[in-house]
Amino acid sequence: MIENIELPIDRFSTNRLDNLKLKNFIYGKNGTGKSSIATCIEEQYSEDYDVRVFQGYERIIAEQGQLNSITLGIKNVELQPKIEEAEALVLDLQKELGNKESGLYKDLNNQLEKVRQVKSDLDRFFINSARKLKNENSELVGITYNKNGFKSDISLRKKASDEERITAKININQAIVETGVMIEYTCESLETYIESVNQLLIVDIVEPTTLKFNSDVERNWVQSGISLHENNSTCLFCGANLSPERKEVLRDYFNDAVKTTSQDIVKLFDELERLRTAVKKMINIDESRFMLIFHSQIKDLNLQLSEIREKKLNILDVIEAKLKEKQSNIFSIVEPVDLSDNNKDFDSFFESYKALYVDNYNRSSELENIKKTARDILLNDLIYQICDLYGYSKKNEELILEKAELDCKEGYIKGKEQDLQEAREKLNSLKKQTVDESIAADTINRLLAGLGNKSFTLVKSELDNHNGSYIIHDYNGAVRDIKSLSTGEKNIVAFLWFICNLENIELAEAKPQVVVFDDPMNSNDDTTQYLIISQLQKLIRDNEDKQIFLLTHNVHFYLNTRYKYWKNKLSRKCTYHLIKNGTHTDIKLISNETQDFRTAYDALWRELNWLYNNEDAKPEYLLNPIRRILETFEKFNCIDNMCRNFSEAEKLFDVNSHSIDDLEAELNGKDKSAIIDILKKVFSDNHSLEHFKSHWN
């Protein structure tokens, strides 16, 4: 047995309905969520229980206007629209598919022609492009190149930059290169020699105090004359006596200081000559030993090398000239040279050369791959240009779109053909599934006979092959137009069929049965209401195994169906009232007879009491039941306007001017007590204060 139901929190103030029994009665006005409860039962418990839900005639009776008949039975009602839909679908699909002259088949043929034309245009482009490449660039594609090769290469097309194109043209023509061994360039820095020369240039040969020369010319003249006077005691120039002591002083002066300096100058001359020879031996790099791609870099390196040689030779020339100047004026101080040579430019050159040599050596060993890469770059670039000129991308996109459209149409038509086949099979299957409802129809006719002159009869139709199709005969046996059937008449037939079907052995499941009546009273007159109530009373009274849920908004129906409800077996019964509280519904368990109501009018007072005592209910919620209470009291007691002497109450309650859901009244800050006090005064003014007190607590 179902003991609780999970409820949607967006509709109810509580998310669970507990303490359910074998027989459950739920009363609530329209909009309080009764159908939501019925839906929850069906959704939450259909797997474990045989849940049967009655929610009116729509699921049990369907009209067949073209046959002037009705379809009876849940199974047949479910099948009837499906049969009609299947029949209409077969006709629609046949019309939609058409033939070669119309419909989808015509569209398909037109699309096939579009694809053929685009493919033909592209095919001509492939043939002409392959021929052009073979004739003008056979070194790239060979002499057997054809359209298939071009189609295959199109996917590799790629635009090359100017630099990539130039490099590829160089590489593709590259012959095998003998790299040879790397030149081990050496070049000394001249800083040390510049420093040595400058040191000699500033050497000052100091004269002894006994020797005094007026000029370097005089010194040089004396120096050259020493050897001439070696064996003479008199001066060959002036005839003066030359003492041995004088000759010894001159000899020491010129032989020691001057000789040492002269020797250093000669040594430096030798070093400078050696350096000059070494510099001149730094020959240019042979570009023939390098791949074509490196020739521009070789030219740059050779230019650097030439500049290095020129710079060093210039330095050597300058310091050599300074040495000659010192040699010629050995007794004078010569101004030093302001030069430097840190050799960084040579180091940079040599590092670049070594790196280029290694790169050249490695590339030379990969020459075949380099030439292939160059060929690919040039060919892909040519194909790109050919395709770009033709507009291949746009044309290919057009083909793709047209083929996609063709595939779409073919797939769509295939689906439609499959749909047509399935629709025909389904139509035949549906017709075979219709259920014979003769037994139920006989029972319904027997019960309807009790309605007297309001009765009508179900007669099985012979106009089609549907087992559940029935024609309506009136009380006198004449055929009635099904359009004349009222909502109440359809509802009573559906209700009686539902009751009969509960005992249908063929439909019974091996699960406990749960029966839900969701507002079974629908536009029924008094006679048919009595029939429905009596059938429900019988079902509820005799039931021992079915769990029953009866949900209704009709107070009269609610009270009469629960005949002698509070007299016995309360442990197997459960009653709830649903009360709207703003946007949500509150659920109130009715646990004894005093909490329940006896009439519809009594129900309004109980609702008013509940809203008054509910802290969550706003004051304006009280107005709707008050309006209905006053309206009912006025009609029953033939009072024209109970609020005639109270303008405030007349405006506030405004009986007969508001819909039952209208809560937009101007309260001017009134709380619940103030509203009830106004209601009390209205009843008192109409000499009905005791009536008010009897219903208000």
3D architecture notes:
The protein has 697 residues and is α/β, with parallel strands linked by helices. The protein has helices at residues 34-45, 74-97, 103-136, 138-141, 147-154, 162-172, 191-201, 216-225, 244-280, 295-328, 344-365, 367-390, 392-433, 438-448, 487-501, 526-542, 555-561, 600-613, 623-637, 647-653, 672-685, 689-695; strands at residues 5-6, 16-17, 23-28, 50-54, 61-64, 69-72, 457-460, 469-473, 479-480, 513-518, 547-552, 573-581, 584-590. The two termini are 38 Å apart.
- Poorly predicted residue ranges: 659-663
Specify the number of helices: 22
Mean pLDDT: 84
* Structural class label: alpha/beta
| Strand proportion | 5-15%
Multimeric status of the protein: single chain
C-alpha Rg (nearest Å): 61 Å
Distance between the termini: 38 Å
What is the share of helical residues? 40-55%
Shape: elongated
Instruction: Provide the spatial order of strands within the biggest beta sheet.
Output: 4-10-11-3-12-13
Major sheet details: 6 strands, mixed
Number of strands: 13
Write the layout of secondary structure elements.
Blueprint lengths: L4 E2 L9 E2 L5 E6 L5 H12 L4 E5 L6 E4 L4 E4 L1 H24 L5 H34 L1 H4 L5 H8 L7 H11 L18 H11 L14 H10 L18 H37 L14 H34 L15 H22 L1 H24 L1 H42 L4 H11 L8 E4 L8 E5 L5 E2 L6 H15 L11 E6 L7 H17 L4 E6 L2 H7 L11 E9 L2 E7 L9 H14 L9 H15 L9 H7 L18 H14 L3 H7 L2
Parallel strand pairs: 3-11, 3-12, 4-10, 10-11
Antiparallel strand pairs: 1-2, 5-6, 6-8, 7-8, 8-9, 12-13
Helix pairs in contact: 2-13, 3-5, 3-13, 6-12, 7-9, 7-10, 9-10, 10-11, 14-15, 15-16, 18-19, 21-22
